[in-house]
Design brief:
mainly alpha; 414 residues; single chain
């Protein structure tokens, strides 16, 4: 017979530890499935394993809402991590190392033969043709860029699983309002769209352009769309989480309402500046003029407008793209300073005061990161930090806008 020692402490000990202790203390060295079934039934192991599920069912609607809010914050953390890895992937020219795409993904090569097969696929790509002429690449160097892209893709799939499957469960819950179900469906749709958009972006870098002498890279238009949709997913989930976890209960004076409009404008300008940064990264425009505040010896570079039609310069001329990003960055800092100055004479809600001060500090830090990245010729670690700084800036501006807001839609039926 199996010993029952230790069952009294079952509620404070892991299920694995209980089973292991009981099995090893048994006088029978060979246990059959029948013995295990009898033991699980006798000591109510199934009930213990399902205890977290039963605990969740017994929560009130308000408590369940907080669980949903923390889930959304966790998804925001995953998106931020994936954006960071994606930035490093782009900066290390790793995004074109995988020349195919499967919806469910695939495991990494394990043997030397499998790595050679993967390397041969890469050798058929335009990027390899450039590498072999200019610098070459060893198999170990290829493994690094391959793992960067592979990790970035699998992080995206983790986000998809963490967003889509809980959403499907919440869509069936009667205590979730129809309006909130629409938001959840929007999050899931955006996640799936992101996956296809990522591969659509990579495909643009696998197209051969024999007339080009520059290193093959993905389309800057598709890169900006990919980054912009990731930021949009992050911000909408973050704003929703704030509405659940930190609901606004106060009414706003006309002065605070005006400050709220300004903070919304800062958030929009921060988003546009981040998209401008995607064009800088996509064209390697940060390597054109590595001087500050002038462009070499001039305030206005001579090659600012050289493409025809005129509008192409803003998206395809590296000089114009860097010039625009500088202007947008400085304009954003001026707008942040204006919001901070406007908030000084006002009596702000406590959390709004913290948000506006944090936004002011991060605004100056982000400009410092951008200038340092430029002057140091875009080192990978610093450029990736600058990109994450833009996401932090967007987070703080969105938080401030939320704290100066008003009550939102009813998300849960109480």
């Amino acid at each position: 017979m199996l010993s029952s020692v230790g069952c009294i402490r079952a509620t404070n000990t892991s299920l694995y530890s209980i089973c292991r202790r009981q099995l090893y203390s048994s006088s029978k060295p060979h246990l059959t499935p029948k013995h295990l079934t009898q033991y699980f039934t006798k000591h109510n192991i199934v009930s213990m394993a399902t205890k977290p599920v039963r605990f969740y069912k017994n929560l009130s609607v308000d408590q369940k809402a907080r669980v949903v809010g923390y889930w959304l914050l966790g998804c925001c953390g995953l998106v931020a991590t994936t954006v960071s890895v994606g930035g490093v992937t782009r900066l290390t020219e790793s995004g074109l190392s995988m020349t195919d795409w499967k919806f469910a993904g695939r495991r990494a090569p394990r043997t030397a033969e499998e790595w050679e097969v993967e390397f041969d696929k890469y050798k058929a790509s335009p990027q390899w043709k450039y590498q072999v002429v200019h610098s070459g690449m060893t198999l170990n160097e290829f493994k690094f860029i391959w793992y960067m892209e592979w990790g970035h893709r699998h992080l995206g799939r983790v986000i998809g699983s963490c967003v889509v499957f809980p959403t499907l469960a919440l869509l069936t819950r009667p205590w979730v309002s129809n309006k909130f179900k629409l938001r959840l469906a929007g999050f899931s749709s955006l996640v799936v769209f992101q996956g296809f958009l990522g591969w659509y972006m990579v495909k643009s870098g696998l197209e051969d352009h024999p007339e080009s002498t520059d290193i093959p890279r993905v389309s800057q238009y598709r890169l900006a769309s990919h980054l912009g949709s990731a930021f949009l997913l992050y911000l909408t989930m973050f704003k929703t989480a704030m509405e659940i976890l930190l609901p606004v209960e106060h009414s706003l004076s006309p002065a605070l309402q005006n400050l709220r409009r300004w903070s919304g404008g800062v958030a929009v300008l921060a988003f546009i500046t981040a998209l401008s940064g995607a064009f800088v990264a996509g064209l390697d425009a940060g390597l054109v003029y590595n001087s500050y505040p002038k462009f070499a010896d001039s305030w206005i570079p001579s090659d600012l407008i050289v493409f025809s039609p005129y509008w192409k310069n803003f998206f395809e001329n590296t000089t114009t793209v860097q010039f625009d990003h500088r202007i947008l960055g400085h304009s954003l800092l001026v707008a942040i300073c204006a919001v901070w100055v406007m908030s000084r004479p006002l009596v702000l809600p406590k959390r709004a005061g913290v948000a506006v001060n944090a936004l002011m500090g991060m605004g100056w830090m982000q400009v410092g990161l951008g200038v340092s990245t430029l002057l140091l010729h875009v080192p990978t670690w610093l450029a990736a930090t600058h990109q994450q700084g833009s996401l932090i800036l967007l987070t703080l501006s969105t938080w401030l806008y939320h704290e100066l807001g008003k009550k939102k839609i009813k998300m849960f039926k109480r």
